[in-house]
Amino acid sequence: MVKTLDTILIIDDEPSIRDVLKLALELEGFNVVTANHGKAGLDLLLAGLQPKLIILDMMMPVMDGWAFLAALKSEAHHLPPVSPVIIFSASREAAEVAKAQAQGFLRKPVEIEKLYQTVRSFVT
Fold this sequence. Notes:
This protein is an alpha/beta fold.
């Protein structure tokens, strides 16, 4: 088990997915903050949240992952250094975006060990 207080921000519109990821990562010792769409996640960042990692779904209401990534870029001057972003999606198109705009990709559904391995590669 990792003993850390590093914060991870999970942005996903599905409550069950947020809850499972949150629980799994908290069991590994991470502090986890969740948002149910990109706008809520962006608001947390603009309010001062400084996560070590962002796990981002792409298909959400209000502000989807695509718009969130664009907002990160356009609001960069209002934000502390932007955390690495891992795209969390079943979409092949999202995997391509991850190559260009994000630092990683996890395919839904994800095996817990793959989640841990990926998170640990960004948060040490």
